[in-house]
Design goal:
It contains 19 helices and no strands. The chain has 340 residues and is mostly helical. Among the domains are: 3-97; 99-171, no CATH class. Helix 16 (288-304) packs parallel to helix 18 (321-330). The two termini are 55 Å apart. The relative contact order is 0.05.
Amino acid sequence: MSAGTHRTESIVYGTALALSLVAALAEGVIWWLSAAGTLPLALALGLHGLVSGGLAFAAIVGARERSALVLLAAGTFFMGPFGAAGSVAMAAFASLSRGADFESYRRALGPSQEDDLKATPVHRPTSRRALVSFNDVMRWGTRREKQAALRLMAERYGPAFAGAFRLALRDPAVEIRSEAGAAANAILNTMETRAKKLAERAAKGDARVMAAYGDAELAIARSGLAGEDRMAAARASALRVYEAVLAAEPKRNAVRLKAAQAQLENHDYREAARQSARCLAEGDRTDDMAADAFSVHLESLFALGAFAEIRKRAAMAPPQGRTRRAIALWTRPQRVRNHA
């Protein structure tokens, strides 16, 4: 965005506050000179009407700040300097309550904080509308905020951003749609290039490289940026690669978990349940991978309607708190009755 656009938005946002200050000063001078007898009453009333009329005109043409300018014009007309002074306080409060825009938010982030921005990357608690996700930025943010969000998503793209990208591609503003399309193509091209390079290296049979190639294909499948056929083909390719890795090295539990997650996304619930059960049987029940495997296993069993098995598996749950909460949800009697 150009510097001119930034200056224009700053001027628009400060209109009500600036006019309030000018009106308060002008009305104060008129009132003081009139009270001192220096300014004739007729001239004082004429100047008062001129100030009020100017504010009314500003209210008519100022679409972005119209409500505040209408209050300013009315307050100044009926209460003179006191009404204008009240509007100064109101405009100052409104200006502060806008909160930081997304660009300011982004500049304030450190590298480690940016790495954590996936599910709920934005929060402006004092803004005119709280933006608690990139989806909210794309729905209700200003053009500047949307462009800043697109840049950050393009730099650190993950599947969690796919919904926001789709909103940006349907944005009413042509420039937002264009930037989103260009960013989406660049991200997808980068993913495809990486997958192609890994495919060439994986042909040598190195299990580590093969697993990385499967991850690259699965990333394309989860990206939300490619066509449906390409994403389906990428998921199938990832599953074939994972199966080949597991055939050669069956103790690679991390790869088995990724395969189970991909099967779950592919609606192959029986295979997802089988692979996740094997992860649980062969892995350490105290690590985070066991919790993820247990979540996949529960969801697969639920999709299969195996509620008795869910209750049986509950006793084997890893000790993590989030897993215990998931079990409490999955095994709640009312939930089971509703789906049995």
